[in-house]
Amino acid sequence: MFSTSHDILLLTIAACVAAFTIFLCWGMFYLIAMTRNVFKIVKDIRRIIDKAEGILDAIKEKINSSASYLFLIGEGLKKIVEIAKAWHAKQDYRGDEEPIDAEAESEYSAKEKPRKVKVKEK
């Protein structure tokens, strides 16, 4: 079968080439599998970033649309403060009565409370 050492050398080279080809195919398979996994991870990250970008755009749009109402809200609050000041000034103007003592009020029942009568002086 093998008549010379040259035949043994060729058989050894053929076996090495076959082993190298099998190793190269095995390595390429794992390289392709890793590349596929990296592609899936990148695709998932892009999807997450797109969702986050959509959420940020929605928040930005809400802020921009509500910014136009801030002036109206501010004017409304100013008007409420003016009304509260006017009401408070009106209460201060009527405030010639003595303040109510809560402890003294609680001692009397509703029927026993003495009535305070204002007398206008002329």
Topology:
Layout: H1 5-93, H2 102-107
Shape: rod-shaped
Give the structural class: mainly alpha
How many domains, as an integer?
A: 1
For the termini, the CA-CA separation is 147 Å
Share of helical residues: over 70%
Question: What portion of the residues fall into strands of 2 or more residues?
Answer: under 5%
How many helix segments? Answer: 2
Strand segment count: 0
Mean pLDDT: 81
Radius of gyration computed on alpha carbons: 46 Å
What are the secondary-structure elements, in order, as H or E?
A: HH
Poorly predicted ranges (pLDDT <50, ≥5 residues)?
A: none
Could you explain how this protein is built, in words?
This protein is mainly α and 122 residues long. The protein has one domain. 78% of the residues lie in helices and 0% in strands. The protein has helices spanning 5-93, 102-107. The longest helix is centred in the middle third of the chain and has 89 residues, at 5-93.
Which tags fit this structure?
122 residues; mainly alpha
Summarize this entry quickly.
It contains two helices and no strands.
